[in-house]
Write a structure and sequence with these properties.
Blueprint lengths: L6 H19 L3 H24 L4 H22 L20 E10 L6 E11 L2 E2 L3 E7 L12 E6 L2 E2 L11 H7 L2 E7 L5 E2 L7 H18 L4 H12 L7 H10 L9 H14 L7 H21 L4 H18 L6 H15 L7 H21 L7 H28 L2 E2 L2 H28 L4 H22 L5 E2 L6 H19 L3 H26 L2 E5 L8 E5 L2 E5 L7 H13 L3 E6 L4 E4 L2 E6 L13 E4 L7 H8 L3 E4 L5 H14 L3 E3 H4 L2 E3 L1
Helix pairs in contact: 1-3, 1-11, 2-3, 5-6, 5-14, 6-15, 7-15, 8-9, 8-10, 9-10, 10-11, 12-13, 13-14, 13-16, 14-15, 16-17
Amino acid sequence: MKVLNYPLSKITIFFITGILAGYYLQPGLLCISFTVFLALLSLITSYFLSLKKKKLILFFSLNTYLVAFFIGCLTLLFHTESLQKTNYTNCKKVFEEPQQITFCLREKLKSNDYNDRYIAIINRIENQNYTGRIIVNIQKDSLPNLLVIGNTIRLKTTLQQNSSPKNPNQFDYARYLKDKQIYAQVFATKSEIRINKTIKKDIWYYTAKLHSRIVNNLNKQHFAPTEMNVALALILGQRQEIASDIIQDYQFSGATHILSVSGLHVGFIMLIIGFVLKPIGNTRKGSFIKLLAILTSLFTFALISGLSPSVLRSVVMFSFLAIGNHLRRGNNTYHTLLVSLFLILLFEPYFLFDVGFQLSYLALFFIIWLQPELKNIWKPKNKIAMNIWNVLTVSFAAQIGTLPLCLYYFHQFPGLFFVTNIVIIPILSLVMIVGILVMILAVLNTVPQFLIQVLEKSIYLLNKVIHIVASFDSFVIRDISFNSHYLLAFYLCIILSIIWIKRPSFLKFTGVLNAIIILQLSFIFTKKEIQSQKEIIVFNVKKKTIISKRNGKEVTIFGYNPLKDSAQNMILNSYLTANFCQLKKTSKIQNTLYLNHQKIYIIDSTTVYPKMINPDILLLIQSPKINLERVLKNLHPGIIIADASNSYSIQKIWKTTCLKQKIPFHSISEKGFYKLN
């Protein structure tokens, strides 16, 4: 593979491996710093020795990769804010009792039914300086929300740590926030907060002010709210106000990526600027003017869109591509892509764990690598057919590159993605061109009404097309079980197959066959692993009792009505999909369950139980009116579990009783699901 011949590619691979090692192993910062110092000394020594003896060049290369590995590890630890002494996570009392906290609002998030939500930066806790990002939830009421980005707020409260998933195989929001260096949240009413009159006017304040100005001026022009919210998402990356049904349509049609400002949008801007500046010649001076215009446009767009991480990384990525083209290195696109990847991760290593970042780089890499091969399969002479074929090949190349990752994260596949891309690209091109012009004129408050109408009708048409494609529900394949073994095996198959197709040889064909064997082994290993598993899970569903008993691939659900509650369906589908299981049957709740010689007895609202049963686990459901102290003396269980169907007040009494009796107590509503295996 040609790209692996570049020294930078190997350095980047070791650097990324170092980031992964730092993330999962969490070594000490001082230890890694000392190791980096020793590795650098070894690198310098090996460099001077290799000048005298060429045989030692290999030793110098190995030292270089080792330094890249440890620098990757150190970079991640250095950017882990919880390891800094001034981070609020090191102030234990703020999580235990109310403290006076001062913070500054940085970014507006999507509101929910109950709260307006923001990302804020902590400045002080009581009289000590602390730093760190938190999520602020301000309860909604009848009063208007007058908060703006840049407001400094004082509030006496406790910080609440982000909670882990309360049910198995659900999206881990706590980990997602941790990767963004957000470790806690606060909840407050408007009456509890004190707002400083002085607003912190930094770049975040001015970008938020710019957004407000654009929105206000578009509202004055009577821009339809539904279409305007989509326009703000497409052009500025502001998805906060988009209706959930529209987002669902984009998901099912395979067009979610266009709602997140990323490489596609930045690429459009580059093409637009390139088209406008086409009359300028490709002389050295003309090329420099084009480069300057492109870079200025890209970074202006990043500022207008609020400097979101997805926009910044796309701008950096395409800026390097533009610089590469200016330096006449168009044939060395891989190298340019690697430089941008390396520099982005050097300054923001946690981007590596962002799904959008992974999909962006994989899609772009496979478009550069695979699309030319797909394009050569057919060379239509008709210009329209050629343009459609180009769109199709780009779409297929990106889809092939990102498919395993999409299946791993989202467990669904939009079968009509190619139809979506063919239809929406022309409409999206118009939306982007007119939309950027409208947003610029909205800043100046001089938007002509006919441009508003063109943009509004274009987005209406875009939404309509997306909705029609999404309505073919049978083409959306959902609940696809896919694990990390499959992910690695599929990528190995895809990469080796493309290498073989590009330049066939017997050795490469052998590699493809070995990859297929590895893929089959991953299927066999997964199947064997599933068949050997047995477990019982008590789910966390408010005011409900749902218990699953799993034996290999088959799952029996107790206390579940699939027609009653869609929330229950989502919880169980996530569990079944992640564990490669099938729902064998649903059943009424039984009083006694067995697993691996362990006995579970269930006491419900009837409060009936035999005195000599002696269960290993006692499960209390539906708020039974019992004297728990007497029950414990009669049954002698090893642990008490109270599911979410019990009232909070009764659980509080039970918890106190268990503490006195020194018996473990697990509250499902407080600690999440209980798993017995």
